[in-house]
Amino acid sequence: MKKISLLLLLTTYSLLGQNSAKTCEILSKINALIQSEHYHPKPVDDSLSVYVFNNFIDGLDGNRNLFTKIEYEKLSKHRLLLDNYILGNDCSFMDEFVSAYQSALERKKKVLEKIQNEVFDYNAKDTVKFSKKSFPFELTSTEFERVWRKRVRFDILEDISKLGSNLDSLAPHFAKLEKTTKAKIFETYLCKLNSTLNSKKGLEYDLQNDLLNIFCSYFDPHTNYFSLDAKTSFMSSLSTSGLSLGLNVTLNEKEEIVVSEIVPGGPADKTKKFEKDDVILKVSNKKGEEYLVSCAPLEKIGELIFSDSNELIELTIQKKNGNILPILLKKQVMKATANTVFSFIAEKETKIGYINIPNFYSDFDGYSVQGCADDVAKEITKLKNDNVQGLVIDLQNNGGGSMEEAIKLAGMFIDFGPVSVLVNNKGRHTILKDYNRGSSYFGPIVVLINGNSASASEFFAAAMQDYNRAIIVGSTSLGKASMQSILPLDRNQENFVKLTLEKFYRITGDSNQIKGVVPDIALPVLYDSIVQREDNYETALKYDQIKTKAKFIPYRKDYYPTLIEHSNARLKNNARFNEIIAANVEINALYNDPKKPLRVAFKDVFKDIHEIDALWKKVKKITTTETKCIISNNSYDSEKLQYDSFQQESNTSKIKDLKTNPYLEEAVAILNDFNNLKK
């Protein structure tokens, strides 16, 4: 037995050594690429070491309930040495992290298995504390059972509280609900632990990927390492499947699968039960196969969803207010639309054209001319044929995309000239120009932006603002003014880095970096102050200005003060916008004010969970109130829609959304003011 144990031990350390050598090999290639090509490479020094260590530890034990204080202190000896290890091509420190993490996970599993059959006391007077900052490492080896009893009790009470909004109706059924909820929570915890410990490619591989990505993010938040793993294939397949549920999803900061988009006219949209940011908790094919998303491998979930034999899929989702809903969906073939740009006519006094650009997509493979700018040009032609008196270009929640498309789009609205200045790590300035004489549209334009308008959206909005070609309306944009490219680390193309190569500046020499595009007319936006912008990232590139040789002739803007004055007057008397302002005060307090310790008792937890119910109802009312704008299709689309039932459903959904859009209504009013000034 001793010989076998020793052999296993030696084999384990041999595998760890091989993995740490692989980590160093990739790190070395990443660092060489970054130091050579990154816009602002930084030295590998103690500052990097502290950043990587802190973020790596936070990723392993962000809640401070896995490692003891002694274990943390043992690992923290590496805190100022990681730079030396990396430069010395010695990544053996990873073996210690992997070993410590595996031991801590196995200990947590034993603790949970031990306490899961205990009868919990829900009359205890202990409390849980909340903090936006990380707690210190304070646990001792004798405290784990106490800590996890309290944590699981709190989770049980929280889940039961989310089952209904009336405490009196839940209380009589507490014993039954506690039994089923407790079983579910332990199942989730243990399932997730087993999934982590038995990871398909090994714990060492997962931690290596985390470390490499953290190393990259030290140079800026948009430089990232990635490999061709299950996450990439899963997320892409969910958005491109022929037989589809009509949902696009993403992973949030908690690694939860959340709804990012509901495709109009699709199965999910037809239920009218899905909303953006709903969390998907469980997936079932109604044949006995089901996976808890919190612990099942993503590839398993993908297999269940995309198998042709699984036409019916049940998704269990959790709403923002905590309610949990099982929803049965039947897949259908989703027809590809002419990419994603679309237009409508918004009418209030006059007919105004509306164009929505969800992202700056492009034909990256070069097989056709199809791209965002070309699609916008088609929509403009349709709207001009209906004699619209102005144009609203909606970039709200547009996260960016192809800069080439943004350049082409800006060129469609200015006659000729520079649109931006690119600067690389050598300090070389490249003036990006629109070389095509003439414009696609000469009428007045409003561009809508918000805190989620980023990168290429900001590029386009800034160019339109600098030329005074459009009035920018909404809230300040995200503040990302850098350009990335995906580069392979070697010929094998198994490892890649999305690398920040350049910064772009406005033709005035100013920058959108951190600052964002500041609207000419500011309107209140729900959640605006808590939206994560560029300046929330610790390693974001700094704001600066340059001297530029770009020469341009802006359009006149002497009418701006009058338009701004009229809009501000409407804003003061607009009930919807005043409700948004009032709701934001409550939202900001909820998010920013320190939260008091909470007693782990049913009444206390229930009250805490449902304190936001009234606020949530206000938000729902705000987002569903219809405006006085009449929304209709342009003549071309109206005729085409008669022969396409799928597009009819999609069209109805889009019109419904636009009817509740107060920003479109105000944009129309601004364009009406402009046209009245011209009379």
From TrEMBL:
GO terms for molecular function: endopeptidase activity; serine-type peptidase activity. Residues 239-286 form the PDZ domain. GO terms for cellular component: outer membrane-bounded periplasmic space. Residues 98-125 form a coiled coil. SMART domains: PDZ, TSPc. Transmembrane segments: none annotated. Keywords: Coiled coil, Hydrolase, Protease, Serine protease. GO terms for biological process: proteolysis; signal transduction. The keyword Chloroplast does not apply. Pfam families: DUF3340, PDZ, Peptidase_S41, TSP_NTD. Signal peptide: none annotated. It comes from the Bacteria. Belongs to the peptidase S41A family. This is Carboxyl-terminal processing protease. It comes from Flavobacterium fluvii.
